[in-house]
Write a structure and sequence with these properties.
alpha+beta; 5-stranded mixed sheet; 44% helix
Length: 141
């Protein structure tokens, strides 16, 4: 079996494993293995293939990690209206506790609410920003 075939089979195995686990980094490592296959097609020796696969795979993992770190500010799934229809709804808080929480009646039940960072605890209308467990994170309207 040719060296390039082994590289392609290993890359395909990592892609299949990534599909089962959802681990983005396995896809980046599979990119390195594909680079090893291309190096084999170009006629590089086994050492050159290994070095190419290692460098490209490591660079892809580092690049993927850097991209994910830049997007840390992406909203939580719990704060998306497409996931939870309560997001964006308005409720009225009559009184805040000293710890920055309150108890409100919403949709026929008592809910614990807490303020988003940087918000002042004052009675009034608040918009639901996120559902965190059984508590609602709210922001002033």
């Amino acid at each position: 079996m040719a060296d390039s075939t082994v590289w392609w089979l290993l890359a395909a195995a990592l892609v299949a494993l990534e599909l089962f686990t959802g681990t983005f980094y396995l896809l980046m490592l599979a990119t390195g293995l594909a680079a090893g296959a291309l190096a084999a097609h170009l006629g590089l020796g086994v050492t050159g293939q290994l070095v190419t696969a290692a460098l490209v795979g490591a660079a892809a993992v580092v690049a993927g990690h850097q991209l994910r770190r830049r997007h840390k500010g992406d909203p939580s799934v719990r704060s998306l209206r497409s996931v939870n229809l309560d997001i964006g709804e308005v409720l009225h808080v009559e009184q805040w506790n000293d710890d920055g929480t309150a108890s409100v009646r919403y949709r026929g039940a008592q809910w614990a609410v807490f303020l988003s960072p940087g918000q002042d605890a004052a009675p009034g209308h608040y918009r639901i920003a996120e559902l965190v467990g059984n508590r609602l994170r709210v922001e002033k309207t």
